[in-house]
Amino acid sequence: xxxxxxxxxxxxxxxxxxxxxxxxxxxxxxxxxxxxxxxxxxxxxxxxxxxxxxxxxxxxxxxxxxxxxxxxxxxxxxxxxxxxxxxxxxxxxxxxxxxxxxxxxxxxxxxxxxxxxxxxxxxxxxxxxxxxxxxxxxxxxxxxxxxxxxxxxxxxxxxxxxxxxxxxxxxxxxxxxxxxxxxxxxxxxxxxxxxxxxxxxxxxxxxxxxxxxxxxxxxxxxxxxxxxxxxxxxxxxxxxxxxxxxxxxxxxxxxxxxxxxxxxxxxxxxxxxxxxxxxxxxxxxxxxxxxxxxxxxxxxxxxxxxxxxxxxxxxxxxxxxx
Length: 322
Ligand code: PMV
Description:
Layout: E1 14-25, E2 30-32, E3 37-38, E4 42-59, E5 65-68, E6 71-72, H1 78-87, E7 97-104, H2 114-129, H3 136-146, E8 158-161, E9 174-176, E10 184-189, H4 200-210, H5 217-234, H6 237-256, H7 267-281, E11 287-290, E12 296-301, H8 305-311, E13 316-319
Parallel strand pairs: 5-7
Antiparallel strand pairs: 1-4, 2-3, 4-7, 4-8, 5-6, 8-9, 10-12, 10-13, 11-12
Helix pairs in contact: 2-3, 5-6
Bound molecules: (3R)-3-hydroxy-3-methyl-5-(phosphonooxy)pentanoic acid (PMV).
(3R)-3-hydroxy-3-methyl-5-(phosphonooxy)pentanoic acid is lined by residues 23, 26-27, 42, 113, 115, 147-149, 200-201, 291-292.
């Protein structure tokens, strides 16, 4: 992998901001853990107005300084270690350390895709600091190395991450789809904001290694990806919702069959899922998706918002195409 050549004199500080994205076709499993190269393609939708904002400066040391939402991160926290490991790609003897101030508008590591917006914002801040002027495709490749899903956080709307085949990962990047869907809404149903019991990074590896259902996963994704793209092109919401929900269910079923089993669902998650089923039975077209955490995200069209908020009064509604 060719990393951008730093210019010797960085600006005083660099700034980057990037939104969260929610996968509708999930990335679950790596063919190369070192470069975060996925087994399959994936497809997400960006959530506008859920930004991570990051400022970066080159400093003399004695070590990296990282703060998240105004709180200094301890050197032994996983957030600190993961960020430093990524920064290792960009430092040299002349620029040994960085100071980072980052503001997240979503809970960290609670299945709300904060690492996606976080690494995308960090890469944009580095691009600004060193004035690389890289293309979004190249930035997508760099962000992928911090967190796979981060490669999809550079565009609004629907974004397709191509798994690629090359060993160096240069063909594994994301691209936006042309289609928009102005009525499409997402609502976050937060059942728990605490840190998840197992990181998506470890959970993915455990699933690939031990789940007897993983064999079926690449074909399931390939089929769902074609169907979801068709549903988007035809604005067929029932088909769209069904594919997205089945994707999430298939991913969690595959994880559940791992050993030890990986189960991100809490009682409140299941209760919320059942309320989605009940709403559908009552004729309201609403579907859910769930990532590596207990919270669920509802998908629906704008005209059904009131009925959905009656059942989920605390849901945080986000129009996806502003
Ligand atoms: O990029 P990571 O390591 O945070 O993994 C993301 C995994 C899922 O959110 C469950 C799926 C996805 O495609 O975003």
